[in-house]
Amino acid sequence: DAGVIQSPRHEVTEMGQEVTLRCKPISGHDYLFWYRQTMMQGLELLVYFNNKAVMDDSGMPKDRFSAKMPNASFSTLKIQPSEPRDSAVYFCASSKPRTEFGYTFGSGTRLTVV
Amino acid sequence: QKEVEQDPGPLSVPEGAIVSLNCTYSNSAFQYFMWYRQYSRKGPELLMYTYSSGNKEDGRFTAQVDKSSKYISLFIRDSQPSDSATYLCASFLSTGGYNKLIFGAGTRLAVHP
Predict the structure, then answer these.
(1) Which of A84, B27, B69, B89 could form a disulfide with B104 if both were Cys (CB 3.0 to 4.6 A apart)?
(2) Using DSSP, how many helices (H) and how many strands (E) does chain B show?
(3) Tens digits of residue pLDDT in B32-64
(4) B36 contacts on A by Cβ (under 8 Å)
(5) What CATH number has the domain bearing residue B29?
(6) Min Cα–Cα distance to chain A from B50, Å
(7) Is the pLDDT assigned to residue B10 strictly greater than 80?
């Protein structure tokens, strides 16, 4: 199993530009999570999906962030327009329904907005 | 107040030392507790998982939960340079549905030879 795959690994963009982060979860994992990690805030949950449906997006700034999961093997997190405060590492994670298995995280996308 | 509090460190110890990493949590309904390890420029990976109070041992690692004091601990015996990483505690509720993990801030550990 290739694990959770995220792309790109690094992204540098100018303020105001649109950024799209991509994630391929582990096959058979019904749950998909997008986290943001910064030194100040640690890991923050932005949104999570169950069987492609958004279950909780209360952590996501909805004026500029949007998340989609068009099929079971692909999800995107889009930021438009991007701002310097969005600079962080964005992780995608997936999980089976039984939570004692924990989450499997991808290697993250390091986003820098200048 | 965050639901899971963790001292960010950094913690620096010599090789072979016993390491104690700690977290506190505020929600008495939390039942499941996990420790994740995160190497530099990698995603967190599940290290250990415990349910309710008690100890769980896995090799050099021991996870301990004291629900009466809302305290979570991870002990590393005979620490190795390869243990150098950030350790995150996490907790969540189980209510029959699915619940999101709440992470601590993570403690950065450096084990030097």
Answers:
(1) B89
(2) 0, 11
(3) 899 999 999 999 999 998 887 889 999 999 999
(4) 102
(5) 2.60.40.10
(6) 8
(7) yes
